[in-house]
Amino acid sequence: MNPIICLFRLAITFTFRTMVLWVFGYGSLLWKAGFEYDERMIGYIKDYRRVFHQASTDHRGTPEYPGRVVTLEAKEGEVTWGAAYRVSGHDNEKLVLSYLDLREQEYDQKSYVNLYTADSSETPALCNVLVYIGSSEISRNKFWAGPAPLEVMAEQIARAVGPSGPNYEYLFLLEKSLRELDCVDEDISELAEAVRKYMNSSNGPNSSDDVSGTNGTTETQSISRKQQHDVCNGV
Ligand code: SIN
Predict the structure, then answer these.
(1) What are the Polar residues biased-composition ranges (predicted)?
(2) Looking at the chain, which terminus has fewer C-beta neighbours within 10 angstroms, N or C?
């Protein structure tokens, strides 16, 4: 065989064998990766903060009553803690990417970031880590919910329910996951506290005017929502 072709083939084989994908999770990917991975690395990304500014109509809300889930907002000097997952092998990578592209379909942006760890705050532990972001570009991101007063967000989260379950469960699971990682995110703790307060008040979602229309169950979801739920249950 022509040595050039032989070398080319070797290079292609080597590239595919050593191909590695790292995905950074800062929301539901923390408690449910939903795919097989080889390694999980706890760390943080720089110049972003975690915000509940993304609407959810496919997991934790419906088009009629959207929930709120996290996205990242660029902010110099801030850091966002989370976990990066390593997936190796060309076929696995393709499988995981198609799973995530469906699961995170309401996020309009895929970015590549550096990951730092507690031991390496100057030199990144990982480069080119994939992260899904719902940008604040309303022309591109139709699920952008934007900021709102704490009490307004708390009420929305307390009441919304989607195919993956109640919106408040997403927030509480996030709070728990961050606690388990030993990461304090004061904004998340404050929002979780406001939701608990709202739920314990007489206006809570168990009162008669349940605006989500599901009263905490997902019975009224359509078949396609049910199918999505089966793929992404718990997201
Ligand atoms: C993530 O977890 O990284 C993205 C946001 C989400 O799916 O909750």
Answers:
(1) 199-225
(2) N
